[in-house]
Design a protein that fits this description.
The complex is a heterodimer. Chain A has one helix and eight strands. Chain A is mainly beta. A five-stranded mixed β-sheet of chain A has the order 1-2-8-7-4, with no helix packed on it. A three-stranded antiparallel β-sheet of chain A has the order 3-6-5, with no helix packed on it. Classes of the chains: A mainly beta, B mainly beta.
Chain lengths: 105, 449
Amino acid sequence: MGKDEPYEKDGRWYIDKDPNDKLFYVADVTQQLADSATTAVSFEAVPVGVTLLEKGSPQGELGGLLPVKLDGMGESGEDSYCIFRVTCDNGEQFDRTIWFNLVEN
Amino acid sequence: MAGMRYQPQGAARLNTLNPLTRGMKVAINAGSGVVNLVNNRILSPNAVNGASLIPALPSHAGLGWTTAGRESGWVAGSVESEDLVGDEGTILVMFTVTESVGASDANNHCLFIQGGVNPNGTVNQSMLGQGIVIPPYLNQRGLRAQWRLRGYNTLTLPGVAGVLETGQTYTAISTYQRLGLCELFLNGKSIASATAPDQPLGPLNIGTGFQVARSFALGPASAVLACSWDRKLTQAEIDSVTANPWQLLAAEDDFDYLSAAAVQHVIAVEGAALAVTGGQARMRVSRRLIVTPASLAIAAGPVAMRASRRISVAPAGLVMAAGPVALSITRRIKVEPAAMVLTGGPVEMRYGQKATPNSYTLPVSPAAITIAGGEVGMRVTRRLSVAPAGIVIEGQQVAFVPGARAGVIDASKVPPSRTVKFVGGQRVVIFSGGVRVATFNGGKRTVRF
């Protein structure tokens, strides 16, 4: 998988990120919502090592697209990730995490 | 620096990384005008004998100087004489036979290039020195090579007839070696030769164009490239340059600042200035470019700078000053604390190409952005921060178009490269008896604990 695509490593999903990039990122949990036959009501974004600039609302089919805008990240070697804490229409909750790999663009 | 595969149009330069250019003294590409690309010296038209500047016209191999339907005239330089003196040398002419080979041109035009030109400007057959006379030689679809030796003696190889066809492109190469073999190659194959005398090559003014060759009956052809060396090319070199003569030239002033490895994607120019100057200058930055503490200056006629990665010019400034100026930036540009100045005739600054919700900033602080020129256009589709200084745009025609911002995040516009699709995993199920952790199970609503 190319560096420009999200990639899975040790059970974690990574996206390359320049520390100075202020970009939008999306967690797509549509499949999980379909598996549970529910929809996403809301989500919380918990940034670690990155700064949350904006948080959108669940969008798309079943509300499975969760957009955020992030800035910065920790120094090399420090973990940087964002937890998407989803609350579903049927009361279920789950977390999904996007990890960031520091790159220089 | 990459060699060209096709004829460069406009400004070009030698591909000096190609060892074939070693010892090169003259390189004239019709697509680049009447300029010796070895030293960027412009060859002035010589007005003697009804001479005039010959425009390069399209042929099937590119722009070339042609005899077809032209009045007599030629272009000559008169300052290169000593460059071609020595015991050996090579001349290359890449040309096309445009039409009606074998037919007489009403004006008896003879196309020559690198021809010997009398220092007083007159041109006639006897004064053709180092050169290749093309076609058709003696009205027989042929060509010949000629070398002027010290003392105005001339070594002329036997003319070769019947070797040229209409609509074809040829590379003719002639080599000279004192007391050695003097040969004429057509598309890499030796077609004529003679033993050279014990004489060095003589001083010679270079010329390009065509002449009224009164004793010839000639048809049209078009010369697209002419080069000379102060050494004799080897057969392997002749084969290589014949296969692609354009490998001798690099792209027009095209500066590719690419880091060799994707380690940091940073090109750092520290302590000194990065200056891009020329007739036509184009700078393309596809990696981060850091120029500090000196300045990045691009000054020329037409100037184009395209940056798709971050550019950091601090603490000095970015200066683009010329005629038409175009600056296209799709990533952050930092100019701090100095100024970014774009001046020229038509000026265009384009910052950001796509009106996506992504936000790239353009901080220019505390200095100012100044864009001044006859025609000025600035298009900004990213965030632009200029504080505490201002933006100054002045010109006869000024357009400032800030890009629209959606205001609401649209997840569907976020590219796949920044979207993670999660599948499977665990979830927390809340029910009347408490909380349980379960795995997603393909749509089954029933959860067993």
